[in-house]
Amino acid sequence: MTPSQTVEGDDPEYAVAVGARLRAVRRQKRLSLQAVEKASRLEFKASVLGAYERGERTISVPRLQRLARLYRVPVDQLLPPDGSEPPAPRAGQAFHTNGERPDPEGKPFKVVVDLIRLSEVQGPERELLRRFLASVQVQRQDFNGEVLTIRSEDLRVMASMLGQSLTTLLKRLEELGVLRG
Fold it and tell me: For the whole model, what pTM was predicted?
């Protein structure tokens, strides 16, 4: 093989872009390389994961799938968008309300949902809410995994899915103890 030839999938620029996504998601999860090593029971050594993140090594698809499961994100979120550089990490997004009580019938507002608490609650609406919020996370590429800020428009969609008014949904979320702020 001549220096100008490459093995299929052996694209150094793509490896760097994948590495940037791996690093961005790991940082959104607030995990160190050592924490991932420990959580994976040494499957992902810190030095090897660091090499993936720097684009020095190419991660295989099966390992990428296992890493996605460990991070609890869809595997495609560990890959850069087609034909472009990976988006910058969104760790600086706002996760808190401004302390004002939301006005369900008036101006736009946001609420913060505690995703950890949601995974612990019981109730018929839990799975539907979990799926909807997971789709919002994918759309925003927001995988911190602890909280998610939900806009009033998204809350209206959730209420509609559950056949409830917005006011009833907000009361139910409060009853479940999944709202923060």
Answer: 0.51
